[in-house]
Structures are given as structure tokens and as C-alpha cells.
Amino acid sequence: MSRFNIEKFRSHFPIFDQKSGSKEIVYFDNAATTQKPKAVLDKYAEYYSQYNANVHRASHQLSAKSTSAFEQSRQLVHKYINSKHLEEIIWTKGTTESVNLLSQSLGHLCINVGDEIIVSQSEHHANIVPWQILAEHKQAILRVVPLTDEGLFDLDVLKEMISSKTKVVSFAHVSNVIGKINPVKDIVSLCKQHKVISIVDGAQAIAHLQVDVQALDCDFYLFSTHKMYGPTGVGVLYGKKELLNKMPPYHGGGEMIKKVSFSGTTYNALPFKFEAGTPNISGIVAFSSALSFLESNSVKALFSYEEELTKYCYQKLLEISSLKFIYPTSPHVPVFSFVIESQHNHDVATYLDAHGIAVRSGHHCAMPLMESLGLDGCIRVSLAGYNTFDEVDHLIDTLNSFSNSESYTSFSDASIAPQSMKSEKASDRIIHQFSTIKGWDTRHREIMLMGKNHPRMDSAFKSESNLIQGCESSAWLSYKVDNGLYQFQADSDAKIIRGLLSIVLAAFNGKTKDQILAFDVEYYFECLGLTQHLSPSRANGLKAIVEKIYAISKE
User: Fold this and answer.
1) What is the value of pTM for the model shown?
2) Are residues 379 and 438 in the same domain?
3) CA 150, 155, 156, 157 torsion: positive or negative?
4) 179: alpha, beta or left? (left if phi > 0; alpha if psi -120 to 50)
5) Are residues 285 and 303 in the same domain?
6) Which residues, listed in sequence order, are joined to residue 362 by a DSSP beta bridge?
7) What is the pLDDT of residue 20?
8) CA 203 to CA 214: how far, in whole Å?
9) How far apart, in whole angstroms, are the C-alpha atoms of residue 209 and residue 299?
10) DSSP conformation class of 103
11) Within a domain: residue 398?
12) For 271-308, how does the pLDDT look when each residue is reduced to its tens digit (9 = 90+)?
């Protein structure tokens, strides 16, 4: 066991002082964003209360202090990733903007008709779509390197694929789904042999690995600060000075210029050439506290603790017989992606959420990877330095209890599948049913029971025209009208969505157009205790269902 003091480290994060309902918060969605230590939150308050001013351009003392704090953050990043020159550190809004900057600026410089850009099968959408846009605009070709059987960038295929037409290879240091470290040095070395520009997406690596960009020798390295205990809306683009100097600006405006006239404009020196407009000053300043916080808590000890936590979590997950990892063998960083046999990933995630455990479900902005695996999504559990072995045990216990969810019985004495009720009383009876239930976990249980009992739709009706756009899992809605009364039928591949469909149809079935449009659905959901508990994506899905019903009734 390392000497890392988990209790001390965790105590710096105020969010863990609160509860999710009556339960302690177990936050296992760190690959999406990490929580913020008090030092970062305090730095925000300090900036806005003591030296809020724009940077670089003013001559007053507040601006001088703001500029000093702003540039101190750049200095800390320069040291943290060991860039050769300070001006090689460019501030962006995040990894996504960094890739877009490169695709537009670098792409303008070096991509021509027939040239090739290479990415891997497991890339985040942010490292696919910008290159697709560029390739279409430049009539270039986007090529894809498959993965090995263990989920790694296939270096052997790259050796065969790379050619004189290849201009850029852009890939993740660590996949946000698979959690394994790609052979970065080997890929970069191969790129250098063929005079190909190498771009490394470090968004998932930076929080778990000590990154030395000079040792990696990549041309560009990108990451977001919110995935390493820093603020959202701030990213870092590291690039070799000689390449950055050659690249044209990405955005035009203030700060990135030396002189502007209608006869011509000259651009500022690095790094300011790529930092047009007022930046996210408070976020960048606060990020300095995140870096200082990491250094003060011994990054080496932190990473050692995470290694132990990763091994433990992997071994415990292996004990669940119905759990299947999307790739075999343990991940290198604490990112675990899996499915539970015969269960929809959204149902698993909502069950965990009802028990105070936050995980992510879906395609994780990696649709091409999911398609290659024949999956419509999976569960992702991602850990950080403030997570504990006890929390992992709680996860395992809850996943084991999920297998018993098929034997749920209702907490209500009047649990009736809503579609079998008389339409004029259905919504009132649902409200009465839910009024006897206390707590989100029991409400969730009732919704899951409704989903289990919900009548399934014939496959003939599961057409593209009946698909509900905006639902996070596939859902369909069909209808018929008899004597002016609407009768809706709906289905989904996720049990939680089927339960929500039952609730919605209880409000609208057997009603006229005017009754449907007059029904106060927001009050209905509030009475059921759904509004405050559903995740934003699931709430949006519920809204999409209702909007489709409204659209149908207006036809």
C-alpha cells in the first residue's frame, strides 16, 4: 500500500460533504469531469473579489495583478508537462477546441487534395469530426487504424497504412472508453520516420499519468483542465514552437495582433497569436491552484494509489458473472467499460443512481467504437484519487443486487400498468400511487416495475418514422384516433424508458386533441417527483416523448 493519504486528499473536496438523498455520494464519472478541491473554488473567489480585470492590455494595477496570475498558470503548465518553451503552451476552451484549432490552422497549412489523415477506431468524436470536416473541405482522405484484440492502437497496421500521402496521425494517449495506454512513443517515432505530424489527445491521460512532452517527442499534446481537478472551459494545446510559428491564426480579433490596418494586419508572437479575445481568465487562474494542489499532495503517490485502486476494482468486477468487459484484461488507468448481460446500460445506470452511485452510460462520444463492437452503448465506471476501496465494494454490492431487480414488487397497493387503466383516471391514479412512495430509490423501483409490465410494441411499428428523436435510448411511438380520441402505443429497448413511457401514456391516452394540449404535464411530473431526480439527458428524453405527442395531436 502506498503512503498516499486518501482521507486527507478527499477532505479537500467539499462536494463529498453532502449526500444524494439519504446516501453518501459515490462519484464514478471522473472520465467525464473530476470534482474540484476547495483551493480551486477559493481561487475563483479570490480572482473575482480581489483583482478582476482583463489581461495584458491595460495599464492599471488590477490588470497587472490579473495578468501576473494568468501567466503564472501558463508557467506552471509549462513546468508540469515539461515543454521546451513557455510560448508552446496555448490556452483554449478545452481538448475539443484544441483539435478544431489544429484541424483548421494546421490543416490549412499542410493538408491538400488526396492527402491522408489517420485516426484510430477508438477516438472520441472530438478527434474524428473536425478531421472529417477538414477532409471533406480539402478533398483529403480520413483513414482509420483498427484496434488490437486488447483494445490498443494497432501499430502494425499503422506501419502498413502510413505513406507519403499521410500528413497527420491524431490519436488518444488513453481511450476514454477502454482506459488503456496506447504505444505513444512508438507511434510518434514512426511518424517522425515518415515526416508525419503527430497529435496526441491527452484528455484521459493527464489526470492519471505524469506527462513529459519532450520525452514523448510528439508535435502536439492536448488536454482539458476539468478532467484533472481544474475548472471547466479551459484547455491546453501544447505544440512545438517551429510548427506553431508556421501555422496561421485560428481566430481573429484582439490580443492576437501586433498591428491592424485596412492595408494589412500583422499577427502577435506566440502564444498570443492563438489566443484571440478575452480568455477564461478566472478559470485559467484557478487552474494554477489545481496544479499546486496536485503537487502538494505528491502526484507520484496519487498515481500509485490509483494503480492499486484500478487493480482492486478490476478484480472485484470480474467476480460478477453477468458482467462482460468490452475488452479483456485490466485497463491501465481506472476507466472500466462493460455491459451486464441481458440488461440495457441505461437501466443499470439508473439503478446505480438510485443507490447514490454516479456512473455514465451510453456511447461515451465513441459511436464508431461501439458500432465496431456491435454495441449501442455500455456502462463506464471511472475513478479518481478521492475514490476509495469501500466505494468500490459498494458498487459491487449494488451491481450484484441489480440482478434481483426482475423480482421487484410494487411498494404501492394500487400498482397497475397505466395502459390498462381507464384513461380519464390513469394520471390521477399514477399520482396517488406515487404519493405513497418516499425517496427516489423507491420511485425508481416503481418506474422499473412499470417498465417490466409495459406492453411491448410489435416490431412492425418500430420504424424510423415512429422513432422518438432526442431519447437517449431507442424509443418508438405510434398512435391511432377513434372518434376523436387518441390512443398511443410506445416502446423502448430500455426498461427505465418503458417505465417513463407508461407514465406519459397514462396522461394522454383516451384524450382529445384539446385535452392533450391543455394537460399540465410539468405539474404532473412534479407531483410524481420526477422533475428534480431525472438526469438532464433522461429529462430531455421525457420531454422529447411529450413533444412528439404534442406534434401528433397538432397534425
Assistant:
1) 0.85
2) no
3) positive
4) left
5) no
6) 378
7) 65
8) 18
9) 9
10) I
11) no
12) 999 999 999 999 999 999 999 999 998 999 999 999 99
